[in-house]
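Why show two proteins at once? Because comparison is the fastest way to build intuition. When a single record is shown, students tend to memorize it. When two are placed side by side, the eye starts asking what differs. So, the first record is below.
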Amino acid sequence: MLLEFLSHAIAFDLAWIASLILGNLHWVFAIGAFVIIAEKGKKPIWHFLLIMGFLYAFLDVMELGGWILAPLIVLVPIQFFIILYFPEGSWPQRNFVKIVTVLFFALSFIHTFYFRLPWG
């Protein structure tokens, strides 16, 4: 989705960008409210664009692996929980990359051997 958005942004296709935004207003307002509350109103537009870019890039990478809904259902909420719930310097914050890596490989294993193979 990120690559598709970037191609339309480079081509200055405002009609497509407007239809994307207007077709997903519930996500725009939900993530916008989340950003304003989480960042206490500091640079909300910049942080909104960063979150949306990361989410779109993550979905692009997951679609390359054959996943469609698994990252939205499992991995992204866990990452937000680890980043936002635990205070700075706590064990989950210090080991964030390790936790996400282990979760990714565990979910990949489950997805491959349970959902893709004929006996799963």
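Second record. Ask yourself what differs from the first in the token line.
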Amino acid sequence: MKINKLSELFDINFTPIRYKEILKFFKLCTKYHSRLFDDNFFNENFSTPEKFLNFIKKFKNNIYFILLGKEEKFAGFFYLYDIKKIPNNFYDAKVTFCISRPYWGFGSYAMAKKGLRFLFEIMRVRKLTIEIVGENSYAWKLIEKLEFEYEATLKKECFKSGKAENLYIFSKFNPAI
């Protein structure tokens, strides 16, 4: 998958999960699962096709695809979880972003920035939290660029490839409220 036109990066759509992108979504989740999810979550929800389909059925309203251009090329997804309704019809939520490899370092910031605007304006998120498992310098740089604030480190909280890793927590508040 290549970017054919620079304008594709600025024509980004976010759509609830659709069946035509499910295979691409599954492949992305399984390929990068150690960066996206802790081992327990992955094994419970993605280790077999049946578990994956149950995950889709259960959380389909919390998964959004990132699609580029008029042809709607699949470029990644985000998944909202631990969603809490707060007063005035706003929500606090955690998010996992995954952007397809062809867009790493070239377009990931634009996609994440538009994703944040979508979450704050359309989805009415008040506080968005991102967690990073282990040392991931690319994710740290992107989060800093997006102006998330460091909140906490939970020591040896997650397991990645059988090794205990720290969990780093960052958050950002909706600037409009």
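One difference worth noting in the second protein: The chain is about 30% helix and 40% strand.
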